[in-house]
Amino acid sequence: MDILSLFVIVPVITMLVLIFSKNLKQSRVIAAVGMFVQFVMSLNLIFAYFKEKQINDSIMVFTKDLLWFEKFNIHYTIGVDGISVAMIVLASIVVLAGVFISWKMEDLHKEFFISLIVLATGVFGFFISLDLFTMFLFYEIAVIPMFLLIGIWGSGPKEYSAMKLTLMLMGASAVLLVGILGIYFNSNAEGGALTYNILEIAKVNIPVEAQNLFFPLTFIGFAVLGALFPFHTWSPDGHASAPTAVSMLHAGVLMKLGGYGVFRVAMYLLPEGAMTWSNFFIVLSVIGVFYGALAAIKQTDLKYINAYSSVSHLGMVLFALLMLNKTAWNGAILQSLSHGFMTALFFALIGMIYGRTHTRDVTKMGGLLKVIPFISVMYVIAGLASLGLPGFSGFMAEMQIFVGAFQHPDMFHRVATIITVSAIVVTAVYILRVVGMMLMGPIRNNEFMELEGATWYEKVGVILLLIPIVFMGMTPIWLSDMIRESISPFIERMM
Amino acid sequence: MRQELVLLAVILLLVILEIFMDNKKALVNIAIAFFTVHTLIGFIPLEDGTLFGGMFHTSQLIHLFKNVLNIGVLIILLQSAEWIKKEIVAQHKSTEFFLMMLSSLLGMYYMISSGDFLMFYLGLELSALPIAALVAFETSKRVSAEAGIKFILSAALASGTSVFGVSLIYATTGSIYFSDVAELLTYSNLSLVGFIFFFSGLAFKISLVPFHFWTADVYEGAPIPVASYLSVISKGSAVLILMIILFTVMKPFELVTSKLLYIVSIATMFIGNLFALRQQNMKRFLAFSSIAQAGFILLGILSNDQLGISTVVYFVSIYVFTNLAAFGVIQAISTETGKENMDDYNGLYRTNPKLSLVMMLALFSLAGIPPVAGFFGKFFLFTAAASQGLYFLVFIAVVNVTISLYYYLLVVRAMFLRRSDHPIPYFKSSFTMKLGLILAVVGVLFIGVYSPIYEYIYQLSIF
After folding, report:
1. How far apart are alpha carbons B103 and A433 in whole angstroms?
2. If we measure between CA atoms, which residue out of B46, B32, B37 comes closest to residue B1?
3. The pLDDT of residue B164
4. Average pLDDT for runs of 10 along chain A of length 495
5. B213 contacts chain A (CB < 8 A)
6. Measuring CA to CA, which residue among A220, A327, A197 is closest to residue A273?
7. DSSP class of B136
């Protein structure tokens, strides 16, 4: 059995075993074991990848190809490069942390973990796919469990949020479908057969009119998931209403599918289209970055603050991708990874705080540092990473993004870059404001004097997420190399 | 002709048994057993050929389609067995139901195997008249009788319109045989009018806009098995014969056809979806959903080559299983509690999890969500339309898919997300109902992913 298909098979097996579980204890242990296996496999994949790259120099390694629908030339084609490996590791860590954070999910526990793992299956399948049809299939599989996860186990206006999120994301994937069909029917532009294989299509020069038509469709199709302004409105309500583990998974992993898709499909296969449309989408992404940060300042609900923060950070990913050069792309990938861990950590901590204080309103809390020190310190660290403090992952990512962006000498790009950089200041404001109001200062509510500390499973989940953030901040060289190598073929295509 | 003869034998046997058997409930089981045998015999391969001097012809594709129809009717019979035993036998009717449904199916066979317009009309009428009686089957309910009247009046008008169109075409070509008409037909004002009239009659059966007005009221008033029969079997056969006639006979009208289908498709998708948004009654809900799905099917017909034909047949086959799964759940709940409203489904998952899951799978398949079969069906239909460069139409179609997702999710929301003080209590369905649902679910789950099925259909898709 090849090493990559296991990433899809293990979650499916976990799901099947979960059907037979009889109580919460069994459900959570099965889910934890399954996702732990996945986690170990993903760490192993890093080493296996480096070993394989020494002997095999192709763009994608560990490839496998199974013919599925002959008449459409649809294959089950899988393979990874450095970027995919990084994303898979991100996904496995966040899923595992999410399982631990959900240790006490009583209501319909079996269904909860099954839905969570279906989501994970979709995510892993997406990252290993090299065939557009299969990629699209896994993309939709990853989105649809959100409806149940938010609608059943969420809080607040959960039905409304679930419906809005599902419809907007599925609407985006519907638009993406048109784009994919457009790419498919133009994949024979230089003689040769129609194909859905990404690597094959990349060798073809699709006519420029077709590219200009289908690039916006494909870009929007993926970027809505990456919170592209003005299609980001599903995100704040969706994240706020979702249960903790679901917010972690969604903001931490699912939204990365958007950026990855833009990079892998929209820009790789339609480079001229990307160049034509880049200015238009840069404007949208800059607005998203700035608007997200400003909106976060206004919010008092912790989850909404974090949701808008995600909109802002992911806007930066799209901004960087649209810069169409190597440094910026490096930054974009690092930002995706860094933000994934950070936002998952944030949501985990928010969930823990909410579970204790039963409020998410920042103005009602205060001085929590004295009462729940572990959680508070973690929150401070997460906050510092989020605003890009050197030593944590956010700094490396943002620095590369801005250096890359500034390489464009024209006025438009420079102005866009300056606006985006100033968003960092706004980020610092809302992060430090929350830290100050919530964790420091006097204890505002006397009931909060007696809150219990973090339980073992919460600590495990949080530390799982913290380690990569620090790791990426301190020793990013091998990671950068892995990513930079894999970006090269994409850059060459752009030229 | 084998399928027709076996079905005729089944019908006649049932008539005889009806006279001599007193135990009507056992008769229901025997009828289902006979039909199962008929379905199994259908799987034996049949050679192509024509009969009656060209009036009746069969090909591999038509044979496959008849098998799909058989499986569909089998599932309907299984799902309705419990209802018949409970309600209908009490009213001193039983086998009439089977006899009429099977006669209608026989009419469908003739219609899709037709080689000339007379056989086509014979099949059309034979399939429509028994259904009219079946729609009004529950004579105690006023809404059933009302639906019956609406159906028979509209169906008669539609058939008449269709035949009038045929007569005009006969006037221009001098023959009613498909092969002759195909050669002799030319584009002229008279034949164009004939074509439009002919198309309108068939469009009625497929519930295309603007011939769809009968659909919601008839589905709502008719007994659930009859509504499910109308939505898949009747619609599917009409789609197939429409495709056959459009591609083989009406070649001169290709440009007219493509423009016509383009507009009708957009109108049908939008009207079906927009009206479905507001429905509370599950039967009306599925009626408008069927109208919208018919709009999607037209996308496949727009690609008049092997790709288009295969995607349409594939989609209709998947649609048979999907819709029957959905109707099956509605039937189970209706037989047990008599409730047919979406609000009654609140909190269904907590009391009847398996039934809710079947409904969810059916709804996801209708919406086109992977990995169930409906996704593949829809994706390939859109591929067929895109192969003709109709990207704008595909865009409209995917917008409609998103709209339809909303109302399908309304049902999922009711079953899974909402709680109720008086949810439908847990009940066990009969063995036949379970079997019917299992058959439908197996189809929904596996037809899509298992690619040889599509490959097989594609091979056969030549007229």
Report:
1. 76
2. B46
3. 94
4. 84 90 85 91 89 81 86 88 90 92 85 92 92 92 92 89 93 93 84 82 84 91 90 90 91 90 89 89 91 90 91 91 88 90 91 86 84 88 87 85 88 89 89 87 76 83 88 78 80 74
5. no
6. A220
7. T
Contacts with B178 (C-beta within 8 Å, 6 or more apart), sequence order: B54, B114, B115, B116, B117, B245, B248, B249
- Asked whether the beta carbons of residue B405 and residue A166 sit closer than 8 angstroms, the reply is yes
* Site of tokens 């890009």: A388
Question: Domain limits at B271?
Answer: 2-460
Give me the number of domains chain B comprises: 1
Q: Which residues of B touch A158 (CB under 8 A)?
A: 417
Q: Which of B376, B398, B399 to mutate to test the interface with A (most CBs of A within 10 A)?
A: B398
What radius of gyration do chain B's Cα atoms show?
21
> CA separation (Å) from A362 to A305, A353, B267?
10, 11, 51
DSSP 8-state assignment for residue B88: I
Residues of chain B found within 8 Å of residue A171, distances taken between Cβ atoms: 399, 402
Q: CA A468, CA A11: separation in Å to the nearest integer? A: 23
- When scoring B391, B411, B419 by the number of chain A Cβ atoms within 10 A, the one with the most, hence best to mutate, is B391
Q: What is the ipTM of this complex?
A: 0.90
Indicate the Cα dihedral angle B255, B256, B258, B260, nearest 10°: 160
- Give me the total of CB pairs closer than 8 Å, taking one residue from chain A and one from chain B: 84
B192 has a chain A CB within 8 A of its CB = no
Percent of chain B with pLDDT over 90: 52
Give the closest residue to B252 by CA, choosing from B186, B341, B170: B186
Spatial distance between the Cα atoms of B420 and A411, rounded to a whole number of angstroms? 60
Please tell me the pTM assigned to this model: 0.92
Q: By the 8 A CB rule, do A323 and A264 touch?
A: no
Average pLDDT rounded to a whole number, residues B19-32 = 83
pLDDT of residue A3: 83
Distance CA A480, CA B459 (A): 50
Read off the pLDDT of residues B46-92 as tens digits, 9 standing for 90 and up: 888 888 888 888 888 999 999 999 999 999 999 988 888 887 777 77
Rounded Cα distance between A176 and B398, Å, is 9
Does B401 lie at the interface with A, CB-CB under 8 angstroms? yes
How many Å apart are CA B325 and CA B356, to the nearest integer? Answer: 11
Please report, for residues A101, A165, A242, the alpha-carbon distance to residue A248 in angstroms, rounded to integers and kept in the order given.
10, 15, 9
- Cis bond before residue A442 (omega within 30° of 0): no
> C-alpha A376: how far from its chain's center?
24
**Average per-residue pLDDT for chain B:** 89
Largest CA distance in chain B: 68
* Residue numbers in B near A174 (CB within 8 A): 398-399, 401-402
Amino acid at A367: G
Angle in degrees, CA A160, A166, A172, rounded to 5:
130
How far is Cα A258 from Cα A264, in angstroms, rounded to an integer?
A: 10
